[in-house]
Give the backbone structure.
Amino acid sequence: MRRMVWVAVGAVGGVVVYRRAQALLADARERGLVVSAQQAGVSAMSALATARQLAAAATEQRPASRTPGSAAGKALRTGSGDATMQGDE
C-alpha cells in the first residue's frame, strides 16, 4: 500500500513538473527566451529525479537482523557498555 502511495505521489509530481515546464516553455517562446525556459525545464527534471530517488530510498525495506537485540546482548555480555561509561567521566 505504501508503495502505491509513493508511486501516485511520483506520478502527480511528474505531471505537475511537466505542465509547469511546458508553461515556461510557451512563455519563453512568446518572449524569445527559449534557452532559459529549456534550462528551467532541465532544472525541474533534475529536481524530479532527486525527488524520485528520495521516494525510492524512503520505500526501501531494510533487511531485519537475524536475532533482534543481538548487538545489545553482546554488549551486555562483554561488559563494553560499562567501559565506555567509565571513560566518559
Q: What stands out?
A: Residues 2-31 form the longest helix (30 residues).
